[in-house]
Amino acid sequence: MIVEHLLGEGMNIKTIAVIGAGQMGNGIAQVASSAGFQVVLIDMNDALLEKAMATIQFSLGKLVSKEKISQSEADDSIARISTGTDRSLCQNADLVVEAIPEVLEWKLDLFKELDSICPDHTILATNTSSISITKIAGATRRPDRVIGMHFMNPVPLMKLVEIINGEETSAETNATIVQAAESMGKVPLTSEDFPGFISNRILCPMLNEAIFCLQEGVATREAIDGIMKLGMNHPMGPLALADYIGLDTVLHIMDVLYDGFGDSKYRAAPLLRRMVDAGLLGKKTGRGFYTYN
Ligand code: 3HC
């Protein structure tokens, strides 16, 4: 079943290409296909794509077992996703969502390539957590059709999509992406393009402060996390959340904030930098502030 989404004043989106099949990319592919979009998921090799499809199967299975969706809806979602390693598959997409690692040069090269592959109407969105949308848009000849579409981890469960307008993002592009996010069952909220946008400008300094507290011996990791969980009703404590996000990502965002604002209040905790240097990146490497199986 192909569903054409008629998006108010925005354009019609039928096919979404997601580039990068990691933790964020596979979640984005899942919520897009569950919303009825045709999805093509692209990464560098078949092993990565197989792993991503297994993750999507597992996540949909969880939602079926919790009776949030039916088995046939899960089957339809899977059927709407195709995979491939060739970026030219984006030539049929109305929207491309990039979810590759946070390396500026890689993103600039990719957006330049996408600009030459994709038809004029295609919107190029980035799931970047901290790189300037305006800078990424500058690699293309369509800066009015480049936008930030920042999903939260874990994508299938989190309601927010932070939409970020670059300097030249058009109102039509914003309207189209707001409505696409809504049709995925998300709540889109728009930020302008300043370092860290809203989510990470506020979240990451809090995580960083928790790491300073641990470094200074103010409290144990259990006490720091317990105080913030029980006292502020946060679902996870800040150290557990930093592990969950990835300590390399948190450090990268702190460095972007520090460089972007030139304000010492954004300096990364030395303990955070030391753990990243040691390869203790959190859940994904099995060790961070906590140990994982
Ligand atoms: N798909 C489907 N189900 C999933 C899932 C997924 N991707 N991930 C977890 N679940 C399931 C779990 O398997 C679990 O199922 P079970 O009850 O059958 O075992 C269920 O959801 C609930 O999970 P848990 O019992 O493990 O724990 P919680 O109830 O605490 O929920 C959580 C987990 C939603 C991750 C919650 O702890 C939470 O909201 N944590 C904070 C997450 C957060 O802050 N995210 C934002 C990070 S910042 C970001 O993404 C921006 C970036 O730029 C840095």
| Helix content range | 40-55%
Whole-number radius of gyration?
19 Å
Strand content: 5-15%
Query: Per CATH, which architecture of the largest domain?
Result: 3-Layer(aba) Sandwich
Structural class, please? alpha/beta
| Biggest sheet: strand arrangement | 3-2-1-4-5-6-7-8
Q: What's the domain count?
A: 2
**What is the count of helical runs?**
11
Low-confidence stretches: none
CATH topology of the largest domain, anyone?
A: Rossmann fold
Major sheet description: 8 strands, mixed
CATH class of the largest domain: Alpha Beta
> In angstroms, what separates the terminal alpha carbons?
40 Å
**What does the average pLDDT come to?**
95
The CATH fourth-level homologous superfamily of the largest domain: NAD(P)-binding Rossmann-like Domain
What hetero molecules are in the model?
A: 3-hydroxybutanoyl-coenzyme A
Count of extended strands: 8
Shape: globular
Order of helices and strands: EHEHHEEHEHEEHEHHHHH
